[in-house]
Design goal:
The chain has helices at 4-7, 12-55, 61-65, 72-164, 170-261, 265-276, 297-308, 316-353, 360-406, 419-422, 430-433, 437-442, 456-464; strands at residues 484-487, 506-514, 517-522, 528-532, 536-538. By secondary structure, the chain is mainly α. The protein contains 13 helices and 5 strands. The protein is 69% helix and 5% strand. The longest helix has 93 residues, at 72-164.
């Protein structure tokens, strides 16, 4: 590589000015670029976070509880927003590197290189002063030599002129000869001094042009190379920082892609079912309500309203989901309490094994805390047992409903009218009473659940000693193949077709489940009506 000290020995000032200009670029150009680049990255990161925050509002406690029922579409979008936040964090990291670390290093190096250039300029001035001093000394010696030579030459001319003249005395001539010799000797001395100083000046000049000045130029060249390498490393540092961020950003994009691929509309439809399913059954067929002569308009309105009313809805699925959440929370609390009990027991054992470890009051305090924690866990376990019992009961009801949903839908008119209407003339369903008058005549004895007055059932009941109402009307015996059921819970019958029951009370089953309702007859055969099937336990 060519050296500046050899090739540019006479161009110090332009080279120094160029060096100062390039050094100033570290801060004014490169530093400014890095700082502005960092500000752009920071602004981009900030805007990304603002964008995400506008689409990801703060969640309430109720919304957090619903995350288990979150659709794949909503979950994917939420995760994409999270990955966007991670991307924003990477750009914020780049902003710190560009605007702070790299910019500050450029400013510091600019100061260092400026200082080094000043040192080179200072050395150049020092060497220039030494050379100027040597040149000045040589010039003074040279002037003395010239003056002595001219004086000797004049004295020699005076001597020669006097020696050639006859008017000058011999003594005068000898005196001029001595003066000439004296000045000649002084001139020779000055000549020697001049020669000596000239050698020294040449040596100094040689050192200046071949040693000192090249050193200064080489230092400037090395400073320029060092500065260039630093600029190179600085740019490479920014590039490497971006390259390190790129895999993370790519990973975020891959995670976003995975989230998008996990969107499952079919699964979301099932989540909608789980979220809004109540477990209630659709209402059964509308009963045929027969009007009798003398019924008023109010009676018609009551019948019409009762015909439109469905079975009571229990909303079992929401209750089941709520119980499962409560059980999960309670189990976590119990596990936490059990860990606390284990820790207190270890501390108490430590006190028992090492009585000198603590005082008696501390031991009594720990024992009290252990007893309180144990009692608390026992209470929570009792509450957990109650919750699980309620959950099992609801699951049994849901199982019964699922079993019923697998059965065929009963024909219209399965649910019969009240017991007092069973023996009335013309009793029947919409399907068998909306026909011609001939069909109405057949309904007196040919339809299920209708028995004409004075039929064989009445004869059988009276002949067998069966029970009867206070007004003398008798009930048909319950079918034996339907068995007996016991009430699991209390039930208040609000509709005319329902009957009330208390937990533990037993009934004859006169009609199996239809739309979640079973028809039963009291054991004393005093009242018959519908009760919820899920409230019954079938004995035999």
């Amino acid at each position: 590589m060519q050296q500046w000290g050899v090739e540019l020995w006479d161009q110090f000032e332009p080279i120094l000015a160029l060096n100062r200009k390039d050094t100033a670029c570290l801060e004014s150009v490169y530093g400014k670029f890095m700082k502005e680049r960092g500000e752009i990255e920071k602004e981009y990161s900030k805007k990304l976070k603002v964008l995400v925050s506008s689409y990801l509002p703060k969640e309430s406690k109720k919304e957090k509880d619903k995350k288990d029922d979150e659709t794949t579409q909503n979950r994917s979008f939420r995760l994409i927003l999270q990955e966007t936040i991670y991307q924003a964090n990477q750009h914020e990291h780049l902003a710190d590197i560009f605007a702070k670390e790299i910019y500050n290093s450029l400013v510091k190096k600019c100061e260092d290189y400026t200082k080094a250039a000043k040192e080179c300029s200072k050395e150049k001035k020092k060497y220039d002063a030494e050379k100027a001093k040597s040149d000045q000394h040589l010039e003074r010696v040279k002037v003395k030599y010239q003056r002595s030579f001219f004086d000797w030459e004049q004295a020699q001319m005076d001597y020669n002129k006097a020696d050639a003249s006859n008017d000058v005395s011999r003594n005068q001539i000898q005196k001029l000869a001595k003066t000439s010799d004296s000045r000649k000797n002084y001139c020779e001395q000055m000549k020697g001094d001049y020669a000596h100083e000239l050698m020294k000046a040449n040596e100094t000049q040689k050192q200046y042009y071949y040693q000192y000045l090249p050193t200064v130029f080489d230092n400037l060249q090395a400073l320029t190379v060092t500065r260039g390498n630093f600029v190179k490393e600085t740019f490479m540092r920014g590039i490497q920082a971006e390259k390190q961020v790129v895999p993370i950003v790519v990973k975020c994009l891959e995670e976003m892609e995975r989230c998008v691929n996990e969107i499952d509309p079919s699964q979301d439809t099932q989540l909608v079912i789980q979220r809004y399913k109540t477990g209630n059954m659709p209402p059964g067929d509308i009963q045929f309500e027969e009007l009798m002569p003398g019924d008023t308009g109010d009676k018609y309105k009551t019948i019409n309203k009762k015909s439109k009313s469905g079975a009571p809805q229990e909303h079992l699925y929401p209750r089941k989901r709520e119980l499962e959440k409560k059980i999960s929370v309670k189990e976590e609390e119990i596990n936490k309490g059990q860990r606390e009990i284990v820790g207190l027991r270890k501390v108490l054992e430590t006190y028992h094994q090492n009585p000198s470890f603590g005082d008696k009051k501390a031991e009594i305090k720990i024992a009290g805390e252990l007893e309180a924690a144990t009692l608390k866990v026992q209470n929570m376990e009792s509450e957990l047992h109650t919750l699980k019992t309620d959950l099992i009961s609801i699951e049994n009801k849901l199982d019964a409903m699922r079993n019923r949903s697998n059965a065929d839908t009963p024909k219209s008119g399965r649910r019969s009218a009240s017991l007092s209407d069973r023996g009335s003339v013309g009793y029947g369903t919409i399907s068998n009473s909306s026909n011609s008058s001939e069909q109405d005549t057949d309904s007196l004895g040919g339809k299920r659940g209708a028995a004409p007055v004075g039929s064989r059932w009445d004869d059988d009941i009276h002949s067998d000693g069966g029970s009867s109402n206070s007004d003398g009307s008798s009930f048909p015996p319950p079918p034996e193949n339907f068995g007996v059921a016991r009430a699991l819970y209390d039930f208040m019958g609000e509709e005319e077709s329902n009957i009330s029951m208390r937990s533990g009370e037993e009934f004859h089953v006169t009609e199996l489940d239809v739309d979640g309702w079973t028809k039963v007859l009291r054991m004393d055969m005093a009242q018959e009506g519908y009760v919820p099937t899920s409230f019954l336990e079938f004995l035999h």
